[in-house]
């Protein structure tokens, strides 16, 4: 049966960083809708063209486009035994579409990474992303050995346009209005586990593993 782990949390809470590590530890593919949109935009696909303005302004891409793109990705063979979702679902209708797709009784675990808003704003301002491998670093908390160069693959590090302070505020507002209700949605299903995300990445990782009851 397909095991699905959802990483929930505000933009900049550390979902991407933890997803990369958890996906290695658990052997589940890391599926990030944000990465999929950014790939489509950089490749100039039709989907990328339709999504671009939403990403740049910090708004959510419409549910139908997002759900189709996600299901297209999760129907590939590497997701047959399970996958780790980073940035999906972000709305109740997306969660409902996923629930229908998985059916009753599918093993679903939601890790809700909690970080206060003021820390999110500080973190996002220094976040660096690798163009090649998607590795996430930070100007202060995990500075690259060589400026602008990814420690993991030597690819080019860049700052996301939507990590500018005004866009981060917009994304936080969108998160509270549209995504935070999922904590209650999954809480009602008894599958939502809280992890304190306001710690060093290693400690958050240990917290995620402990919540999943996996040995480090
Ligand atoms: P992320 O990399 O997860 O922070 O996502 C970056 C941007 O991609 C978001 O601000 C949205 O514009 C878009 N996006 C990512 N995932 C979703 C989703 N599940 N639903 C709608 N829009 C999304």
Report a brief summary of the structure.
By secondary structure, the chain is α/β, with parallel strands linked by helices. 47% of the residues lie in helices and 16% in strands.
CATH superfamily: P-loop containing nucleotide triphosphate hydrolases
Largest β sheet strand count, sense and barrel closure: 5 strands, parallel
Strand pairing plus helix content: what structural class?
alpha/beta
CATH topology: Rossmann fold
Provide the β-strand percentage band. Answer: 15-25%
CATH level 1 class label:
Alpha Beta
How far do the termini sit from each other?
24 Å
> Which percent bin holds the helix content?
40-55%
Features:
16% strand; three-stranded antiparallel sheet; Rossmann fold; alpha/beta; five-stranded parallel sheet; binds adenosine monophosphate
Describe the model.
The protein has 216 residues and is of the alpha/beta class. The chain contains nine helices and eight strands. The protein has a five-stranded parallel sheet, with helices on both faces. It has a three-stranded antiparallel sheet with strand order 6-5-7. Helix 4 runs parallel beside helix 5 and helix 6 packs across helix 7. The longest helix has 15 residues. It starts with a strand and ends with a helix. The relative contact order is 0.20. The model has no long low-confidence stretch (mean pLDDT 94). It binds adenosine monophosphate.
